[in-house]
Amino acid sequence: MTEAIFKRASVRRFTDEPVTDDEVRALLRAAMAAPSAGNQQPWEFYVVRDEATRVRLSEATPYAKPAAAAPCVIAACTHTAELHFPMCAPQDMSAAVENLLLEAVELGLGAVWLGVAPEPDRIAAVSKVLGLPEGVEPFALVACGRPAEEPAPKGRDRFDESRIRWIS
To answer: Which among 31, 106, 138, 141 could disulfide-bond with 100, CB atoms 3.0 to 4.6 Å apart, if both were Cys?
Structure first.
């Protein structure tokens, strides 16, 4: 079992050191390796390094403040047209974002998932900041960079045997 699952933590403070193009490609390669319903792969990713745009994204939703200080923000977006299984797109996108977060751990980066969907006001605000075309809808923002903090991973503490039901 990969240790990244248990080392992952939400990092909200970053150093000024940039995330390299190769690191971004590795993050997105991991994201696009996610399973998707009927292999529909509804994702498109916007990589935001521009400081003014990151600040605007940080103001677009109530919980996106870390985007302002992160050297890189990745907007995970959903193509909403021509999906074979549109009701499964949120699960597809969630799997992609989780893969990205786990790859960040492997690369020694910090990252935090900043929710956008399914809130209509957040979707509209982020769409406006990014100038998204018709048929592309923001699902989540991921602020990432070199961690300026080391929050304790919570995954190891969440196992709860009382939530398991064995059916034999």
So the answer is: 31
Whether residue 133 has a cis bond before it, omega within 30° of 0: no
- Express each pLDDT in 63-112 by its tens digit: 999 999 999 999 999 999 989 999 999 999 999 999 999 999 999 999 99
pTM over 0.85: yes
With both helix axes pointing from N to C terminus, report the angle between 51-60 and 120-130 in degrees, rounded to the nearest 10.
170
3-class SS at 38? Answer: helix
Query: Which three-class secondary structure string do you get for 95-148?
Result: HHHHHHHHHHHHCCCEEEEEECCCCHHHHHHHHHHHCCCCCEEEEEEEEEECEC
CB burial of residue 87 (10 Å; 0-12, 13-18, 19+): exposed
Q: Is 94:100 a contact under the CB 8 Å cutoff?
A: no
Residue pointed to by tokens 């989780």: 98
